[in-house]
Every structure is written in structure tokens, then in C-alpha cells.
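User: Quick one: structure for sequence A, then sequence B.

Assistant: Sequence A:
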Amino acid sequence: MSHVTRVAMWSGPRNVSTAMMRSWENRGDTVVVDEPFYAAYLLRTGIDHPGRETVIASQPTDPTEVVAALHAPLPDGVGVHYSKQMTHHLADDMDLSWTRDFRNVLLIRDPAEVVASYVRSRESCEPEDIGLLQQVRLLDALRSGDGTPPVIDAGDFLRDPEAHLRWLCDWLGIGFTPRMLAWPAGPRSSDGVWAPYWYDAVWRSTGFEPWRPREVALGRHDADVAEACRPAYERLAALRIRL
């Protein structure tokens, strides 16, 4: 691990996580991994997501095998390994000690905005679906080891992506490049097989979407889900990077 920077960006769904993955992949010295625990999550939970069987067939379903792959040697000339991780993909009883081999970052978003976006793609949403509760568990696990990981709020990030990316690169001890701010539109070979169901906006994008206020209107159940996750969000938001 000493000659390679391995970054694990932990998010919930419907955040800027896929655009963030595009940003890092566009560096040129970086390989990215898209949601490596997704198949294991679908198999373990039985949850019905779009393209479920295709996703399960596309990845290892044994978490131990996934962790081993995340530690695998990288191709020559690659100095940064970036994994886009979804915290809700982790089992509650999973030993998280392996995460200490990585430079971990928590990426958060206001739960009402997450739920509003999530239910546009799925009929139902529960607190466990949007990752914030699991991000708190991961925060506690990481704090018991090497200290508090950086927390980035998507709203703050989109107001000034360059400042946040420069901060992250400095924290990681790697150089920032303007290539992280723009990328070609379209799919990538690194995209998970679920991309056709979820990545339309990212495929159209050539950079980070400027921040704008969101009008959120939720039904009773979805509003209750967002409020159930708000204490977790507020705990994480109190630790967020402020630039």
C-alpha cells in the first residue's frame, strides 16, 4: 500500500458519487472501481433492484473476495486506486477493520433531497436504503482506529468543486489536476452493469452540475424516512469540511 494511494469514497445513493468517480478517473493516473459490494448486497438482502440478476452475475458476491480484490496490485503507472463505495451495501455485522487500509472519505447529502431523488427511480424507500445510518456506523469504526475521516457535504462540494478537490488531493498527498473538473460525456467501461438504469444524467454530463436550491415535496412515508435519517445526517454534517 505504501506506493499506491487507495481512496474509498463512502456515499449513499443519489448523491454526486458517480460524477465524483468520473472526476477521479479523468486524472490519468487513477483506476476506479464502481460499487464493488453491490452484487453481494443484492444477494444478501434479496432486494429487487433494476437489473438485479445481471448485477449479481457481474461481480463477486462473497464480501471477502471483494475485499481481496480491493487490495490487488495495480497496473504499472497507476498511482491512485479510487473506489466508489455505497455504505448501505455493507452488512451490519461486517468486520470493518479492512477499511483502515484505505484513505476513507464520507460523502453526504441532505436526506430529504436523497429520498426525493431515490423515489423517482424506485417505488419505495426505507431509512436503510439511503446510507446515512450506515455512514455513522462506519464513522464510529474509523474513529476507533486512525481518527475521523473527512466528511464532504454534496451541497458544499457543488458550490466549489475545485476547492474541495484541491483540499482532498492535498490531504491525500497527491497533486491536483484541472482534469478532475471536466470529462467527456458518455459511458465508461468502468461503469457497473447497472449504469443504464441509474447513470443517464452522468452520461450526459461533462462536469459537475452547479449547485442550485432543490424544491423537495415528499409524501408522508418518504418524509418520515428522511426525518428518521436526519439525526445521522446532522451528526455527520457537524464534521464536514468547511472551505
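Sequence B:
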Amino acid sequence: MQAEFIPVNIAVLTVSDTRSAADDKSGALLRERLLASGHLLAEQAIVRDDIYAIRAIVSRWIADENIQAIITTGGTGMTGRDGTPEAISVLFDKTIEGFGELFRQISYSTIRTSTIQSRAVAGVANGTFIFCLPGSSGACMTAWDEILIHQLDARHKPCNFVDLMPRLREK
């Protein structure tokens, strides 16, 4: 028996000192992709590259029981202002090690050894999945089209993140 699609409430956060709603290509791409897939946009925001500002928004979202997943874009590079992994990783109850590994493996076919510069990470915090993606729209497209569209779909077998959602807050 085929499982039914279950829409996920997803928040999207763009981390950037320079982007606005008018030119946020990566945030727009993620919004369009998740809505086209049948998911719900719980909230969308842009925040400056500041670990405390990033952490404040993500903390608010993980405290909101209506938000089931968060996708961030930007701030995963290695420059002095890139701090998304540092801002968010400390919030994780569990890290999803395979996400970053798989993202870099898939990216290698397109950007070759430049994928080594990606610090894409993912984890679970307070029962909420969090995925931190690079800021390029190409990287967001890769992450959504090759990983997230499948793992955020209850019909994907043998396993997916949606099946785990009811059990994420178990003690």
C-alpha cells in the first residue's frame, strides 16, 4: 500500500548581509520548490550574518510546534562573516552527519573539489529538522532536488524524515 503525501510546515531563513526580499534568489528558489512539492511555507525571513541574530530566529522557530523543518541558506562558507553552522549546531539535540556528507558527494559531480568548501550541516532540535545550505541558488537546488524533496516525502522508501517526525520528541 502506497503511503500518502503529508505536507510539512517549513520555515526558510536566508542568512546574508546584502540580500533583500527583492534579490534573494536562494530563498525564493527554496520557497518555490517546497510549495510546488505540496509543503507549506510556515515563515520566511532574511537575517544578517550574525550568529546571535541567526540563533534568535532559529530558536524561536524550533520553539514553535507548528514548524516541523527549517531550511537556511547562506553563511556556510569559511569567511569571517560565515557563521551559520556555529550559530545553529549548538542548538542540535542530534546531528544528521550523513546530510552534509551526501550533499558534498552530490555536489562533487557539478563543482568538483570546490565542494570541500561547503560546511552544509543538518540536525534535529526540539523535534524540528534543520538543514543549513550554502547561499548559492545552485547549491539550494542540489540540496532540494537531490535530497530534501525525497526525505521530506512520506512516500519515499525505505525511510524518510516525515515518518520520524511523530517520534522526535520522545524521551
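The chain has one domain: 9-164. The first helix runs from residue 25 to 36.

User: Thanks, that's what I needed.
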